[in-house]
Amino acid sequence: MKGNEAIAEAAIRCGVDGYFGYPITPQSEVMETLMDNKPWETTGMVVLQAESEIASINMLYGGAGCGKKVMTSSSSPGISLMQEGLTYLAGAELPCLVVNVVRGGPGLGTIQPAQSDYFQAVKGGGHGDYKLIVLAPASVQEMSDFVELAFDLAFKYRNPAMILSDGMIGQMMEKVEMKPFKPRWTNEEIAEMHPWATTGKPASRERNIITSVELDPNAFERFNLKLQAKYKTIQENEVRCEMINCDDAEYLFVAYGSSARICQKAVDLLRAKGIKAGLLRPITLFPFPTKQIQSLVGNLKGILSVELSMGQMVEDVRLAVGQSVPVEHFGRVGGVIHSPEEVVEALEKKIIGG
Amino acid sequence: MAIDIKEIIKPENIVYKKSSLLTDNVMHYCPGCTHGVVNRLVAEVIEEMGIQEETIGVTPVGCAVLLYNYIDIDWQEAAHGRAPALGTAIKRLRPDRYVFTYQGDGDLAAIGTAETIHACNRGEKIVMIFINNGIYGMTGGQMAPTTLEGMKTATSPFGRDASHDGLPIKITEIVATLPGTSYVTRQAAHTANSVRKLKKALKKAFLNQKEGKGTSFIEVVSTCSSGWKLNPVDSNKWMEDNMFPYFPLGDIKDE
To answer: A58 and chain B: CB distance < 8 Å anywhere?
Structure first.
C-alpha cells in the first residue's frame, strides 16, 4: 500500500468524522482513496472536495469547533495557503490533523520529495506565537499509525497536529498492518468529552464560543502565556524519537522521515568500515528531542543533520548542543534525494575530515 | 384617578419585549446601525422557532465579529471571509443542527467571494445573512466591493471611480444564478415595514433549512452612519435614494 493510501485507510479506521481537501501532487491519493472507499456508507465519515486549501482548512475549523475528528491533507504550496487557518485553529485551541506530503519549493517548485517545510511546520508558520504538534513518519506503517496518534495528541492538548511527510513516503509502497476499526464518537459522547464544543446550547450550560479574538491586552497576554505553558507541557511529555546504534556512537546523524531511512543505510556502511556511527531519528519534530540529543553529546565527535533542505532542522540541533560538539548540515534539494554513499561521504568530509 | 404603572405592565398587555435569547450585554454598534436590528430579528426567529439548542451561528470579521456576545446560542468566530467554509463543515457534520452565517460586504463579497460562491453552488443547507452597507465599517470606512460609484470612502477619497475600481458587485444576483441556492432575497431594516418583511424572510430561510432545501441567502441593505458620515436619519434617506436603486429590494429567487 502507498503511504498516501495508508493515511486514508487509517483515517477511516480510527473514526475520523470528516476529511476536507483539495487535490495537489504528490498526495492526491489520500482523497482519491477516501472517495473510492465511500466511508459515508460505512462509518458515516464525511469526505468533501473543497474549492481551495483555504476553504478546506476553514472547514476543519468548523468541524473541529463541533468537537469532531477532522483532517485534511495537502502538499507544500497548499499548506502555505492553509497557514491563516492554522493560526486561527491554534488560537481557538482546536484539535485537527493536517498532513503535509512535502514537495520541493520555494514557489510552485517541484512535485518531487523534499523536507524544506520544516521551519514552517515547527516554528508556527502563520502569524503569532503558536506551535503545531508535528509528527514525522519514516515508513508507510508510520503514515498509518500516526493518524490515530496525531488525533490523540491533538485532542489531549486541544491543538492542531501535523504529519510532516514527503513525496517519497507518500508514494512509497510497503506492507502495512492496519489497526482494527474504531467507531466514530457519537454526538452525545462528544458533548460529554468536549464540553467546549459548539454542539448546540442546552439550558444546562453557558453558550460555547469558538474564537481566537480577545481585544483586552491583559487578557490576551494571559491567553498567550497559557498557550506557552501548554507547549512546555507538550515539550516535557510528548517527545518521541528513535535511536539506532547510538550507545557507542562517536558520529551521529540526526535525520527524520525519508532522510532517516537513507541515514540508516549510511550507518551500516560506516559501521562496516569500522566507524562508530549512529542515527537519532526525531519522530516528533515539535516537540523536538533536544534532551535526547544532549544525552549523547559526551561520546560524540560530531553531528551531521541530514535533510532534504538547505539546512533547517540543523538549527534546532545546534540549539540543543551549543558549542559542545561540531554540527554540520548535509542535504540535497529541488527533488534530488541523497544516496547513502553521498551521506557517508558528507560525514567523512564535513565532520571526520573537518 | 391616576393609573399606577403596575396596572399597565401585565403579561396580557405586553405588545413587545426583548427576545429572551438576547443577552444583557450592551451592543457595541454605532447609533443608527442596522446590525442591532438584524441581530435582534435573528434572536427572535430562533426563539419563536424554539431552536436555541439546535442552532450554531458563525460570526465574521468586521463589525459583527462580537455578535456572539448578544445572542445566547453556540457560536464560532471565523477568519475573514471564511464563514461559509465553517458553516459547510458544521452542517455536514451536524446535519441535525440549524446553521447560519452572518457576514458583511467586505467579508462575503471581497475576501470571501470564493467561499460564498462555492458554498452556495454546493447548495449547503445553511442560512447566509449578508449585511451590505457599502463600506468597511470596523476598519474605519474604506471602500467595499459594494461601495457605490462616486461614493467617498477612506480609500476612495475622491469617490469610487468605475474606470479604476469597477462598479459595485451584485453578489446576491450572482448567487441567485447558482443551482444550489433555494431562496435569495434582498431586504432592508430601516422602517417598521422593512423590519417585518426581513423577519419574514429570515423565518422562511430557517424553515427552508428545516425542510432540507438548498442555501438560503438574505442580503440586508444597511446603513453605516459612522462610515458614511451622516446622522442615522440622513443615512436612511441616503440609503433609500442611492443604495436601493442599485440594490433593489425583493425576492430574487424562491424555489
So the answer is: yes
Element (H, E) at A192: helix A187-193
Q: Do B89 and A209 touch (CB under 8 A)?
A: no
Do B205 and B87 touch, CB atoms closer than 8 A?
no
A210 touches chain B (CB under 8 A): yes
Our count of domains for chain A comes to 2
A264-322 tens-digit pLDDT = 999 999 999 999 999 999 999 999 999 999 999 999 999 999 999 999 999 999 999 99
Q: Which domain holds residue A10?
A: 3-187
pTM exceeds cut of 0.90: yes
Give me the pLDDT at residue B1, please.
Answer: 61
Length of chain B: 255
How would CATH label the architecture of B28-135+164-254?
3-Layer(aba) Sandwich (3.40)
Nearest Cα residue to B232 out of B156, B108, B132, B133: B133
- Rounded to two decimals, the ipTM of the complex is 0.97
Shortest distance between the Cα of B143 and any Cα of chain A, in A, equals 23
Interface residue B15 vs chain A (CB under 8 A)? no
Judged by DSSP in three states, A278 sits in strand
Cα distance between residue A63 and residue A45, in whole Å: 12
Minimal C-alpha gap between A132 and chain B (Å): 18
CB B115 within 8 A of CB A55: yes
| pLDDT (tens digit per residue) in A330-347 | 999 999 999 999 999 999
Least Cα separation, residue A164 to chain B (angstroms)? 24
Q: Would A193 be classed as within a structural domain?
A: no
Chain A residues 78-107 within an 8 A CB cutoff of chain B: 84-85, 88, 92
Q: Does B107 touch chain A (CB under 8 A)?
A: no
Asked if B53 reaches chain A (Cβ–Cβ under 8 Å), the answer is yes
